[in-house]
Design goal:
It is a single chain. By secondary structure, the protein is mostly helical. The chain is 40% helix and 6% strand. The protein has 13 helices and 5 strands. Strands 1-2-5 form a 3-stranded parallel sheet, sandwiched between helices. A hairpin with a 2-residue loop joins β3 and β4. α2 packs parallel to α13, α3 packs parallel to α5 and α11 packs across α13. The longest helix has 34 residues. The protein starts with a helix and ends with a helix. The N terminus is likely disordered. InterPro entries: P-loop_NTPase. Keywords: Signal. It comes from Aureococcus anophagefferens (Harmful bloom alga). This is Sulfotransferase domain-containing protein.
Amino acid sequence: MMMRMLVVALAVAAGRAKPKKRPAPPPPDDAAVDAARELAARNRAALAAILARLAGGDEARLCAGPFPEKRAAALQWLHVPKCGSTFATTFVKYGCDALAKRPDVYLGAPPPPDLDKPDGRTLGTTALARMAGALCGDDHRFGLLHNDGVVASLTHFAAHYPIQNPKHDPRVAVVLRSPNQRTLSAYHFGRHLWGSEMKNREGTIGSRHFIRWRSFISAAMAGPRDYAAMPGLQGCFTKMLHGCYCATRPKEVPPDLRRTYAGDASQVACPWQWKTLDVALARAAAARLRRFAFVGLQEAYNASVCLFHKRHGGDVDPAEFGLFNVGYAQRDKQHHLSKAQQAGLQREKYGLSSLRAKPSWDEAPLGAYVDAIDELVWAAALERFEADVDAVLSRD
């Protein structure tokens, strides 16, 4: 009875005026489920191999100077939710030479005296963007593209906007992480649900249907497994590479919300249209990812920062290796770093000393769940990262 009430309530929250009985979806395709779980296992093994080679000396080689001069071409940062907010320091210092010369400016640092109206006790992404705008004006390397291709104001670059026009792909820089780790991080970060169906003038949530759906989902969470399997939460990478927001409102609600299975195709509300979230869409997203200007891995964050500079130039600022948002809303003490520990890491110098274990979430609460859609994109990210490492190290 409770499950039936849950489904009916979600149906109403999803925007239907009156709940209607719908036929049950076909049973899970066991072969598709098995294939998705096998891919996830291969991805875990591939990531472990990458981390092992980095620890074996490749990260030290990546982080050893000299680094080339900065390129003149502008880049766009695709900021996927819970995938490397700290990259804002690297991105802004790369884009603004005047800011790159400021060792006191980085994500999480105390606001400097010359920053008007600081947002808080530490610098956030918006404050960094505001400083870059003040110091560099139009003389920067930011390619800030919204879905319509119009150059946006600098203060919007850090928001979780998706990309749409394929012609912008060669300018995009992104940092991704394991889909399960991203999902768990979002769950523990206040059940993070960033999405929309239309942009309002502020570029934030503008759809009443989405707001109702998001509010219901936030209240209905029973745990990480239920959160991961909720309709509209899967395929964050895939959706953002196709002009959709990370969290989307589903058009159809499966009768059994707790049995959302790998490979399930469903229509989701993207800006101005419905899109079918399936393997074909994921493969197209993976193809786009391979054309990006840069692909980094959060699990190999320090090496990713050095790889970015090896490919696009500019010296590395030690502040780029700082950790940001670590321990936020995390109840597990295993993952929590004290403010003193974070402050120490914030100024840690790169090189061999930068090799440290990153906090990661225990995936046991997800059970056998796998995000079959995003594992395809994640596989492409792992392949691209390792290929770029090989290319850079072969030149040094």
